[in-house]
Amino acid sequence: MKKNLLLKWSLMAFVVFALLLPYGVVGAAPADGKYTVNYKVLKDGTESTSMMDNYTVKPANLTVTGGQAYVTLTLKSSTWITKFQTERNGQYVDADVISTNTAANTRVIGFPVPDLDAKLNAYTEVFIPALSYNGKYDVQLKFDTASITPVTP
Question: Which of 73, 76, 85, 151 could bridge across to 60 with cysteines, CB 3.0–4.6 Å?
């Protein structure tokens, strides 16, 4: 009887683990496919939301291919954001520009994310000519893996 109950609980735990794995809930990258994911832009080294968060559209798009995650997100007031880089192998690298909409003043950027559970270091520069404002910021992107949702074609 105890052996049978242990077997049932083990099987149930395995099923729950197998069902949650594709959605990133248990820390692994989701299965290959297209998803959306919520995120926050944080002040460097904190859990406090950065002002940069206000200049991004939520959720981001997530594409997983061969276990590798690639995120695309939209920047608002993109003419003010003169640089957006993410850390790759210890160095900051410009994000890929996927598209630009000058009429809406938006820009879609993309970058690989090696670990969706870890904060991703990023660097951005902002220049607002009308205010003669020039700022340089270290920020971090924190992805909400529990929010990963498959995109249905």
Answer: 73
Locus of tokens 């460097």: 44
Tell me: the pLDDT tens digits for 32-53? 999 999 999 999 999 999 999 9
Q: What local confidence, expressed as pLDDT, does residue 13 receive?
A: 44
The confidence score (pLDDT) of residue 133 equals 94
Please state the pTM of the whole predicted model: 0.80
Structure tokens at 27: 């820390």
Do 99 and 108 meet the contact criterion of CB atoms below 8 Å apart?
Answer: yes
Domain range 2-150, its CATH number among 2.10.109.10, 2.60.40.1850, 2.40.160.10, 3.40.440.10: 2.60.40.1850
For every residue of 37-98, DSSP letters joined together read EEEEEEETTSSSBPGGGGGB-SSEEEEEETTEEEEEEEEESTTTEEEEEEEETTEEEEPEEE
Can you give the residue ranges of every domain in the chain?
Answer: 2-150
Percentage of the chain lying above the pLDDT 90 cut: 80
Query: Residue-wise over 100-119: b if at least 16 C-beta within 10 A, else e?
Result: eeeeeebbbbbbebeebeeb
